[in-house]
Structure formats: structure tokens, C-alpha cells
Design a protein that fits this description.
17% strand, single chain, 2 domains, 8-stranded mixed beta sheet, two-stranded antiparallel ribbon, alpha/beta
Length: 225
């Protein structure tokens, strides 16, 4: 497990029991660059030592599950997911954050200590948010990182929205300040918790908004429909 509180920001730790190059193949994938740069094994494999890493944390902590892998990709064996969710279910004092580009492949109910989100870069991905609404979770969120094209979320709104810019590719794909103001106003009006990643500090002229979902004790026992 890695400490990502200063890099990712919206989670404390990353947990990657599934190793290898993510088969989704996004052109902006930072993890694929890391694998190639350090000549890591690209074939999918399961790391049982890493699987048990969260056990030593008493909590509370926010743990980003499979930060370098699409956990619901068809090439990931169901048995591996079963192993991961067994650990999640057993460690109720920890919050596990799962982010997917393939919500249509979600194959199980979420434990109460899971925050479930979809990744979106523009309006072409809105179907992911609609698909996610079919699944119950204590927190349902959208990660717009990188935010490449403006879009309107529309009701029902997520509990949480993460915003970030594309890094390592220059400024040509940066969101405009007007776009950020518009999204900020939307979140305030609809009471959506907003988290701006630190890479937006060069664009956003004020203190970055870095909010987290407000979770009451009862939310961990009864997932929202």
C-alpha cells in the first residue's frame, strides 16, 4: 500500500492487489506510463501479500482500491474480486473507495464501507453516471479527472464530485476558469461535496475547495437506494 494523501489527495492510501497494465487502455493513463518506465510486469496477476495489507490499519483511513486497475474489467477473474471484497467486508473501520469506467459490469452489492464512483472526462461519459445509479452505495460519486470537456451532470446529482486537470500533456486540455466557476456554482446549489485536486491550483484563483462526503453513522448500515 502507498500513501497518496499528498498526490491523489482525496484518499489516504492506495491498495493494488491486482498487478499489471490496465486493459482499458486510456490514452492518458498514468499507471501504464509507470509500468513501462520501470519495466514492471505487464501481465495481470494477483498479489496475495498486498491483499492482506489493509489488515494492519486500525482506521479510520480512506483507501483507493485498485488505483492502477479496472477492477470490473472482464479480464479480471471474479475470484480476485471476491478476495478483495472479503477483505473490505471484514474491515468495517476503513473506508474503501472504488472508481470504475465500467459500471455496467458491477457484479455485487457494495458493503456499507464502500464509496462507489465512476470516472468521466466529458459528456460522452454521462451514461456511466446513469448506470451507477442502478447500484446502491453509501456514497456515489463522479471523478472528473481529467476534466477535458464541459458537461452538465443533471439530477439526480452525486454525493461527491472530484475535479482535476490532465497533467503531463501541457495546458492544451486544461479546463477553463469559467468552466470551474460553473461547476462550483452547481455543486453549491445542489449541495454536492466538491474536491478540487491540487493540480487545479494554477487555474483556480482562490483556495481550492477540498470537501469530503458527510457520512452519518447510520449511512454505514443502510446503503442509499
Amino acid at each position: 500500500m502507498n500513501n497518496i494523501s499528498e498526490t491523489i489527495g482525496w484518499a489516504d492510501l492506495s491498495w493494488n492487489p491486482i498487478k499489471g497494465i490496465c486493459p482499458v487502455g486510456c490514452w492518458y493513463c498514468y499507471a501504464a506510463k509507470i509500468y513501462k518506465r520501470f519495466h514492471l510486469k505487464e501481465k495481470l496477476s494477483f498479489d496475495y501479500k498486498e491483499l492482506m495489507a489493509p489488515v494492519k490499519y486500525a482506521g479510520p483511513a480512506r483507501i483507493f482500491v485498485c488505483s492502477t486497475m479496472e477492477i470490473f474489467h472482464p479480464s479480471v477473474p471474479k475470484l480476485w474480486r471476491d478476495e478483495i471484497f472479503n477483505v473490505i467486508t471484514a474491515l468495517r473501520s476503513l473506508t474503501f473507495i472504488i472508481l470504475t469506467k465500467l459500471p455496467e459490469n458491477i457484479d455485487r452489492p457494495m458493503p456499507p464501507n464502500v464509496w462507489l464512483g465512476v470516472s468521466m472526462t466529458g459528456p460522452e461519459d454521462l451514461w456511466r453516471w446513469k448506470e451507477l445509479q442502478k447500484h446502491m452505495a453509501t456514497v456515489r460519486f463522479i471523478s472528473a479527472e481529467p476534466l477535458l470537456t464541459p458537461y452538465t451532470m443533471g439530477a439526480p446529482f452525486p454525493d461527491w464530485l472530484i475535479l482535476g486537470r490532465l497533467t503531463g500533456h501541457g495546458k492544451k486540455d486544461d479546463p477553463s476558469l469559467d468552466m470551474l466557476h460553473w461547476i462550483y456554482a452547481d455543486c453549491k446549489r445542489e449541495k454536492v461535496r466538491l474536491f478540487m485536486k491540487s493540480n487545479l491550483s494554477a487555474i483556480w484563483p482562490c483556495k481550492l475547495v477540498q470537501e469530503f462526503p458527510a457520512i452519518s453513522p447510520g449511512d454505514r448500515e443502510t446503503n442509499k437506494s
